Amino acid sequence: xxxxxxxxxxxxxxxxxxxxxxxxxxxxxxxxxxxxxxxxxxxxxxxxxxxxxxxxxxxxxxxxxxxxxxxxxxxxxxxx
Length: 80
Ligand SMILES: [Zn+2]
Prior knowledge:
Helix content is 0%, strand content 20%. The chain is an all-beta fold. The chain has one domain. The chain has a five-stranded antiparallel beta sheet, with no helix packed on it. It starts with 20 loop residues before the first strand and ends in a 27-residue tail after the last strand. 9% of the residues are buried. Bound molecules: zinc ion.
């Protein structure tokens, strides 16, 4: 069923999400993996047997950190 070498992880394998993507619909927020799993952009999964896996990874973490020091833009201007 899997044409890849080495073969993709089985849908019940711990690393199942490492299977190759065969269909991708980023505009709809899901991808079909080679092992039959549909994975959603919120990290939820739909397994081949019909079982579902709830989103299990945070997707709302901000990796950007804007510098916010004491000299913030809200500081009042010095009086003349
Ligand atoms: Zn494969």
